[in-house]
């Protein structure tokens, strides 16, 4: 049967976070960040440290890196590091150095939900150009109908604007959409937008345990997500 429902609410769309939910991208982010700060003489950040800095977009990533290393960085310096970070991140594909990989179950979930007639979107704080390139690079654009990046709206998650924007673009009422993520940003954005939210326990969540998130449910793997949604006609 096509379609799905959650707790008696019929669904027409599922919105996914990207980093830490669908894709493990921390290796790419750490590599690009360390290359961006190397000209300043900053020591390289361990990947595990960078994992806890991910969330709320690249400017916050740079601020957290500076704080972790105890470096003074005014707004102008932070902005220049962000631009170098973007350059280095884009260069990973040119050098065939991309490390990002789908989490187990991600592709299975996208395929199954698409087959049930649900509209699918990625809603991320990563810049649109990078998020869209990743979606296309893994061949997911056949399943994912829309990508909303951190620069697609005036505000990023945890503000609800990106989620509401995605629903509007998909032609779906927020009450008929479900958010899937790995961080407090996803939960807060979903709550403010009026969406139920399901989380995975393996993501980044700014260094905090995702299992502590006040979400509606946890799935150990995204492969478990389709079975969690009750079959039913989509809106």
Overview of the structural elements:
The protein is α/β, with parallel strands linked by helices and 235 residues long. It folds into 2 domains: 4-25 and 101-231, HAD superfamily/HAD-like (Rossmann fold, 3-Layer(aba) Sandwich); 26-94, Putative phosphatase, domain 2 (DNA polymerase, domain 1, Orthogonal Bundle), CATH 1.10.150. Helices cover 40% and strands 14% of the residues. It has 9 helices and 11 strands. The protein has helices spanning 26-37, 47-51, 58-69, 75-94, 106-115, 128-137, 161-170, 184-193, 225-228; strands spanning 4-6, 9-11, 13-16, 23-24, 101-102, 119-123, 146-148, 177-181, 197-199, 217-218, 230-231. The strands form 3 sheets. The chain has a 6-stranded parallel β-sheet with strand order 7-6-3-8-9-10, sandwiched between helices. Helix 1 crosses helix 4 and helix 3 crosses helix 4 (75-94). The mean pLDDT is 95.
